[in-house]
C-alpha cells in the first residue's frame, strides 16, 4: 500500500477519532516517532491541527518540535521508495507552509527540508527564499544559518561579506554560535572556551544541544579526544544528536581493533545517517569495502554509497563511480560514468579531475581533451592544486583548444599550485626556471622552488637540487649534491638511489670510493625494479665491483634489466654470448641482443650490430653494416666513424674508394678518437696530401690510446725516421708493446731488433722466439729471416733442411728472394 493511501487513512482518523485534540496531540512519544508509520500518523494529526490554529497552539507547536527537531522526520523517510518519498516531501512542506505564519521557525524548517532533500528535490533558491521569510519574521536561527551558508558558499553562492554582515547583525546566541564555528574552522581557538561557557547558560533545549555539539567539535579540533568522546556520548544519551552519533562512532572505530566495538561504531553511523548525517553513509560504505585480506563482496559498500548518493553526497557518487569503473566485481562503465557525472553535478572536484583524466586518456570514453580542460578549470576554481598542476601540463603540451603549447599559462598554473605546497607543481615550476623552458634560465628561482620541494620531502626536488650543486649552477659542492641524492634515496626514489650509488662507487664527493656501499645502493634500487640499478648489480657481479665476481648472478641481473628495457643490459648480454662469459658462445644470441639494443636507439648496440654485419659474425652485409654504423655515428659514437673509415681504407668490398676514409677518420678525431687510419692517410696521401710529420703525429696519438696497429706504425716511424727523428730504442719499445698484443708485424720487428741488438741489448734467443711467432702466423719476411738464421746458424743451430723449410714457406707467401732461392717464378 502506498504512503499516500495510508496517509489518507491517517487523516480521516485524525478528523474523526473522537478524542480531544489536546489528548491526540500529546499521545505520541519520541520513541513512537522513531517508527515511520507512527511518525506519518502524527504528521496527519499535525496537518489536521494546523487547520484549527490558533486553537491549542502550544500543543501544536510541541508536536511540531517532536516531529522535526531531532531528525525524526529524516528517519521517517530515509528508506521510502521514490514515489512514497515524493509524497512525503510534498506533504511535509505543505503542512509546514500552513504552520509557518503561526510559528515562523517553521520557515527555517522548510529551508532545511529542501537542503536535506534527495536528488533534484534540493533547491538552493527555495532554501534562500524560506530562510529570508524566517529572517523577515525575526527567526534568529535563520539569520545565523544563512550567514554561515553565504560565508562558506555552501549550497548558496559564496558571498563572504554578506555572510559576515548577517552573522554580525546581532549578538543573538545563534549568531555567536555560528561565529564560533567560523573561528574554530580557522584555527582561532583562544577565546572559544569562554564563548562555550557563556553559551551553555541558555535554557533553550535546541540551543543547548547545538552548543554542546559545538563544544564537542572544539574538543575534537584541539585533540582532546577523550573529553570529546565523553561529551558525544552525553549528547547521544540525552539528545539523540545525530552528528554526535557520527563522531562517537568514528572515534570508537579509530581507537579499537575489536570487532564488537567496530560493530558498535557501525550501529552509531547507521543511526546517525537515519537521522540526517549523510556523511555517516559514506563511512558505512567506505568501511564496508573489502580489504586486501577479505574476499567479501562489494554489496554492502554499494548499498550505503547508493543511499549517500540518493541524498546528494558527492563523495558517495564518486566512490560508486570508481567501483563501477575500475572494480572487476562491479564493472559497469555506463553506470560508472553516470555516477561520475552525478558527483560532478554535486560539485565534487575529485570527480571533475577523474573524468578529466578519463577524457584525456580516452580509454573508458571517447577522447575529449577540450572537455577535460573545462572540468579541470572548474576544479581549479575550487583551488584544487592537482587540477591547477594538471592544467599546467595540458597547456605546456598543447593539449587544449589551441593545439600548441602555452608555456606562460602553464607556468602560471604550476606556480599557483606551488603556492599551495603541491609538490609536483613545485617541481614543475622549478623545472621551468632551471631549464629555461620559457626563456632564459633563472637558477635562483629554480633553487628556491627546489628548496621548497625539499622541505616537503619531494625526492625529485632533492635530486634536481643535487644536480644543481653538481653542475655548478649553484656553487659547486659534490658533498652537498651527494647529501641530497642520499636523502632522496632514503625515500626510495630509484633515480636518486642509482645516482648516490654512482657517487659512492667513484668517490665523487669525498675522493674515497666505496664500491661495497655502492653495491648495496644498486641492490636496493634493483629490488624496487629500477632497471638501471638492476643493470648496475649485474655489472658489479660481472666485474667484481663491491661484491665477489659471480657470472651466474651477473647474467641473472642483466636478463632482468634487459626484460625491463635496458639497452645497456642487452649489450652486455650480447657481449657475454660473444666472449663466452658465464654462458657458451652463441653468435645468434649475441646478434639478437645487439639488435634489440640498436632498435632502442642505443649507440653501442648500433655500433656492435654494424660491426657484426661488417665482419660476418653470422653473415656479412656491408650495406646493413654501414647503415647501423652510420646510426651509431649520428648518435655521437666516434668509433663508428673509425669503423666506416676502415671499411673504405682497407677496401673490404674492393670498391676502390679509400679516399672516403679520411673524412670519417677526421670526424672521429673531432671527438678526440683516433686510430692508425689518419696516419695512413697522411703517410700515403689517401684523401689528403702526403705529410709524414702528420702521419707520425696521428700514429703516436693513436698508439698512446692503446691502438695496437698504431703502436706498430709508430715503431716503424721511429725505425725509419718517418716524420720523426730515427730512434731505434723508441722503435723497439713500440714494436715490443704491439708484439705483446699479438700484432704479427710488430712481432717480426721485435725479433729482428733483438737479433741485431738495434735499440735493445742483443738477445738472439728471444729474437728467434719472436720470429717464430710471426712466422707461424705466415709473416713472409719473418719466415725468410728465420730461414737465414738456420742457414747461417745465427741464434740457432745451423740446419739447412729447416732453413729450406722456412724459405719454402716464405716463397708460398710471395717473398721474392725466397722464391728465387727455391727456384720459383712469380705467379707460379
TrEMBL record:
<dbReference type="InterPro" id="IPR050767">
    <property type="entry name" value="Sel1_AlgK"/>
</dbReference>
<dbReference type="InterPro" id="IPR011990">
    <property type="entry name" value="TPR-like_helical_dom_sf"/>
</dbReference>
<protein>
    <recommendedName>
        <fullName>TPR repeat</fullName>
    </recommendedName>
</protein>
<dbReference type="Pfam" id="PF08238">
    <property type="entry name" value="Sel1"/>
</dbReference>
<dbReference type="InterPro" id="IPR006597">
    <property type="entry name" value="Sel1-like"/>
</dbReference>
